[in-house]
TrEMBL record, chains A, B:
Tagged with keyword Hydrolase: yes
Keywords from the named record: Aminopeptidase, Hydrolase, Metal-binding, Metalloprotease, Protease
Entry coiled-coil feature ranges: none
Protein name: Leucyl aminopeptidase (Aminopeptidase T)
Pfam families: Peptidase_M29
A biological process from GO: proteolysis
Amino acid sequence: MDERVREHAAVLVDWSARVEAGENVVLSVGPDAHELAVAVAEELGSRGANLLATYSSGEITRAYLRAHDGDFDGNPAHELALLENADVYLSLGGGRNTSATADVPGEQRQAYNNARREIREARLGTRWVSTVHPTRSLAQQANMAYEEYQDFAYDAILRDWESLAEEMAQLKTLLDDSDEVRLVSDGTDLTMRIDDRTAVNSAASVAYDSHNLPSGEVFTAPAGTEGTVTFDVPMTLRGESVRNVRLEFDAGEVVDYGADQGEAVISDILETDEGARRLGELGIGMNRGIDRYTDNILFDEKMGDTVHLALGRAYDACLPDGESGNDSAVHVDLITDVSKDSQLEIDGTVVQRNGTFRFESGFDG
Amino acid sequence: MDERVREHAAVLVDWSARVEAGENVVLSVGPDAHELAVAVAEELGSRGANLLATYSSGEITRAYLRAHDGDFDGNPAHELALLENADVYLSLGGGRNTSATADVPGEQRQAYNNARREIREARLGTRWVSTVHPTRSLAQQANMAYEEYQDFAYDAILRDWESLAEEMAQLKTLLDDSDEVRLVSDGTDLTMRIDDRTAVNSAASVAYDSHNLPSGEVFTAPAGTEGTVTFDVPMTLRGESVRNVRLEFDAGEVVDYGADQGEAVISDILETDEGARRLGELGIGMNRGIDRYTDNILFDEKMGDTVHLALGRAYDACLPDGESGNDSAVHVDLITDVSKDSQLEIDGTVVQRNGTFRFESGFDG
């Protein structure tokens, strides 16, 4: 076994999920994430945690959803009980075909998701962490050779997380102390309110309210969005290529949209529910171990010199106690490059210009 | 997809497990059983059942057990809750190496199993069915080419189960109505009492108290065994080759034994506990789709023209209500060929000669 697989498992169990003896862990394994699952099982065994492995396959989901009449039972009791009794949920992504569910009708997917809100809540109620095992399928999606992709993925995953957390804390402080964010770039001039919001220093650990490995972003839950934004980072959504999505907001809601490619997917997403037309997240990428787009949201949205916005569900961690933010069955991230001709303003002060933060050397105030 | 995979899935869901709309199904998937899992997911979707897939991998079990200190938590709540809320449990065996857990110490395995009694009971409390997907690893164990093994496995699995169940019912009736069975063959003359016992018509369906696919045997729980038996079907037991085991019984208990190969394994088994020296099962193979031994008990013991006896634990289904049969920590099946120079007598009447039953054409009374 590649020693980096063992290091990945150790970071996941130790830094990210903080697993302790006696805890009940659900390990969700993708079909090609087997090797990482073996390494994680070893970590869990050595810590005396209790392991149950589930199998997460796009091909199984596709077969099930296409055959079902669409009248899904709400929150099946066996799956709900499993998650309600779990302390930790570790998702090891890694399929054999990133388009495995491409021909599942959108309404079928939506009906399935809508029937599973309590299950989703129960999973989000655990100390959950999502990561991926670098597979040939992900390498292909990234237009990279397999070993090249492994190097890329482990550069992103095996960071000095403690030191990155300290760097990101500076941006979190700026956001926590202010009321409004403005993003200006080519095709973008967007204003969002962040009064009373708390930014998350997403340092790839549940100890930081951060649930992705790799991570490396600072995010918050915006409100009252006004203006236009263009997402120029190409990506695949629900099996479809999506390019240059443009959204126009008024009073927090999408009032117009378009795309050079994949407009139908955006339309499907916006139609999910009322919350799908509002933003649930503003995220600022700060992981400079990620040096290119690979059409994988887990990596792309964390990349330095990018900003992303998500349609749909907001994270509770960003909201005042007892207040619930935007609610939706979806959470779909879209990304824009801010390395050129861009600026990010917080309460009128430019804090990032062309990708460089004001607390970094080379910042051009 | 090979059409036989779909047929296998349909038989499993429909005939074997009798899955209905709204039922909660746990689908346990071996690493190389993916294709069958996809076909089963389609069947479950079309029936409106609720699917949760778990991942069953010898390599994960090995890594976990070898890393653990051996002081296992009893019945982890998340796994217990999953099974207690399941209606159906479908196990799709199919690993990449039948020796994947060969270097896990026996005491570690036993400590793990002992800590999971309630989980096991909960699983046995569902409508559970075990089957296997024909894999390269199983083909190798059977000394067969892959496609040759697929043909073999589907011949065994894709029977006309309804018609076989009717045929087997005739043997069940004969056994239920009588007191004594005598088996005579080369190296064998054995008498067993079956007063008050109920035979199981094991027709690969929970509707028949039968939990294996393939199945195709009629079995009961014998007592008061007298005489000698020779098991001439070669097999691997606990990783050791075993050939021509001979057991001599007096008043139901093994009083002498020998073997051409693997005598030490037989000795180990007999020493387990008191119940290990008594028979827990007499089974009569009636699946003529199985035409050769493949060193896999799921198939071998069901083969037509064979009889098997198990040392150890008896099944409750064969016993009068409230009576408990032979108890033991083991249940080890041993098989004898009855295709030649053999006869099976029930209360003094020959019911099978050289593999042919008296209710079949060609029977030589």
